[in-house]
Amino acid sequence: MDPEVSLLLQCPPGGLREEQVRAELSPDHDRRPLPGGDEAIAAIWESRLQAQPWLFDAPKFRLHSAILAPTGSQGPQLLLRLGLTSYRDFLGTNWASSASWLRQQGAADWGDKQAYLADPLGVGATLTTADNFLVFLRRSRQVAEAPGLVDVPGGHPEPQAVCPGDSPLHKDLPGELVVHELFSSVLQEICDEVQPDFRAGEEVLLEWGSRGPRVYQNHFCGDTGVKWQSVFCLDKELVLGFA
């Protein structure tokens, strides 16, 4: 396993269905303000905009923690504790040159090395064809993260898909609708970027999670001739190989 990835949780064999997952949205799960204030984030964002004026900010879900219920428990099996963050905060913390220091400072100040990081929740998919080839895309050279590199289909679940508007609030994001967005967004990303012929009734299952580039992995196998696995991720990573 990549040394920068640590296993966060492993779901029961067979994965978890949407109705077995619950999301808890709270300001308590947001990123902590940086020591001395967030002016550094604003400065990084302005510098990015000068170099890449096509970038735009948008709200994102922030992963605070995930709790898996004991084996045999009734009801929802996985609780996702989510806050809100933004793409601007992601570039100004996780992707900043000070990211390592922020992790150290978060551990010292709050007992949580992620406390000062945006940690936006994203989705990515490893798409496998029926004849065992993997589908990859090349990232645009105009994106802020890993421009021009080979990548998997993916993006982010969007708070604005649950509550339209520029600044959705935690109280306006019902947990069941957030969970639905997490599961449906990875299908939407595959359809938008690869355009396979999915059929109605195909199912997404949550299988495992980790802290690092990957956060949660879904598993899917339908009867359309396309098999795929998807990953909720903090940032995109390159995975090469044959199925």
UniProtKB/TrEMBL annotation:
Top-level taxon of origin: Eukaryota
GO MF annotations, alphabetized: GDP-mannose hydrolase activity; metal ion binding
Database matches in InterPro entries: NUDT22/NUDT9-like
Keyword Iron-sulfur: no
Swiss-Prot/TrEMBL keywords: Hydrolase, Magnesium, Metal-binding
Cofactor: Mg(2+)
Name of this chain's protein: Nucleoside diphosphate-linked moiety X motif 22 isoform 2
Lineage, opening ranks: Eukaryota, Metazoa, Chordata, Craniata, Vertebrata
Gene that encodes it: NUDT22
